[in-house]
Amino acid sequence: MTPLSTIDRLDCSRCEKTYDPRRLAFLCGCGAPLLARYRLDEAARTLRRGALGDRTSSMWRYREVMPGAGEPVSLGEGGTPLHPARRLGASLGLTSLFIKDESMNPTGSFKARGLSAAVTVARDLGARRLAAPSAGNAGSALAAYGALAGLPVSLFLPSFTPAPFFEEAEVYGAQVTRVDGTIADCGRALAAANPDGGWYDVSTLKEPYRIEGKKTMAYEIVEQLDGAVPDVLIYPTGGGTGLIGMWKAFAEMETLGWIGSKRPRMVSVQAAGCAPIVRAWERGDEAAEPWAGASTYASGLLVPSARGDFLILRALRESGGTAVAVADAEMRGAVLEMGRTEGIHAAPEGGSTLAALRRLLDAGWLDRSESIVLFNTGTGLKYPAPVVPAL
Ligand SMILES: *Cc1c(COP(=O)(O)O)cnc(C)c1O
């Protein structure tokens, strides 16, 4: 028997409003993102950890706590390795270091998870065209899942985006608009091209389901650790979808009876050239001001203003975590270190987590026996010279 979604409603993340998931819903009227809520008591009857062996290895194995009524628009996203980084760990004096290797996803990044979920719902709701501003990987994933769903896709990419992302958009048949500016300018260009809102806009946190795709990383990690919750998660943060999603997933898993009350300390890593969350964290603020003059070669971290800023900061606070900024050259050094010790060709965003780990070890923030998960969120193959900084 195929399990069904137990989605119940969409709750505003800031005010008391709720929305019906069977209708088109983007942001709350108050401007805040919406979060999907499920009938977890019902889901718990069939979604039992340790009893999912015969299900798909994709993220849709958690069907009860995923959105969408229909057949998923899936390319096999999720089910990525939790790689025990023994050589790298030993070189740092760590006994329990892991890399969640998201470069293994369709289109080479964890954006596949979010867009598989978002496109599944968009198709259910009768979307006729999908659109998004993107710094790269989100656009590639949207283009691929749009193609699979048979829906046309419009992408708005900054003109400095590395060439491989344009190649992917072409291969998947998306229509591309090059914008001279940042991802924020791309968002404005999309809004201008879509004045009547007839296109289905899958911008980060504007629609509620990319979070639901990315949250499955936390479910997988708990399964892969036989029910254990790691001590620390180190996450490269742009819009923060994955961090917000995983924080939500741990709460769901507790209600489902998968885990107890333990939570990992969540660490948000940003680029020194674009670190609005780190700055807000250091000031003790509950929201982040936009970062002026943003720059980093880790295009996934080039998000000067995140819609879910207050949700990211709340997760850091509630988990006892922290936020760290690292320079592009440190990321590059860490990419080489990860490649040479573990055979993983990380994206710079993935490298940033190792650079942050070093900082945290130096600061004595981590105990060397703690279990630590780094997220390599994408493949390094899409960042060719000349964007890679010299060391
Ligand atoms: C988008 C992206 C990120 C940032 O992800 P968020 O969940 O939006 O913070 C990190 N790494 C890579 C490779 C990305 O494509």
Q: Please, how many helices?
A: 12
Q: Which CATH class of one domain? A: Alpha Beta
**First CA to last CA: what distance?**
55 Å
Order of secondary-structure elements: EEEHEHEHEHEHEHEHEHEHHEHHE
Low-confidence stretches: none
Provide the gyration radius in Å.
19 Å
What structural category do the secondary elements indicate?
Answer: alpha/beta
Average pLDDT figure = 95
Helical proportion? 25-40%
Descriptive account of the structure:
This protein is of the alpha/beta class. It has a domain of 200 residues: Rossmann fold (3-Layer(aba) Sandwich), CATH 3.40.50.1100. 36% of the residues lie in helices and 16% in strands. The protein has twelve helices and 13 strands. A hairpin with a 5-residue loop joins β1 and β2. α4 runs parallel beside α5, α7 packs across α8 and α11 packs across α12. The chain is globular, with a radius of gyration of 19 Å. Bound molecules: pyridoxal-5'-phosphate.
Helix/strand layout:
Elements: E1 7-12, E2 18-19, E3 34-38, H1 40-46, E4 82-84, H2 86-92, E5 96-101, H3 111-124, E6 130-133, H4 137-149, E7 153-158, H5 163-171, E8 175-179, H6 183-193, E9 200-201, H7 210-224, E10 232-236, H8 241-256, E11 265-271, H9 276-283, H10 309-319, E12 322-326, H11 328-342, H12 348-362, E13 371-376
Parallel strand pairs: 5-13, 6-7, 6-9, 7-8, 10-11, 10-13, 11-12
Antiparallel strand pairs: 1-2, 1-3, 4-5
Helix pairs in contact: 3-4, 3-7, 4-5, 7-8, 11-12
The protein binds pyridoxal-5'-phosphate.
Residues 109, 111, 137-138, 204, 236-242, 300, 347, 349, 377-378 line the site of pyridoxal-5'-phosphate.
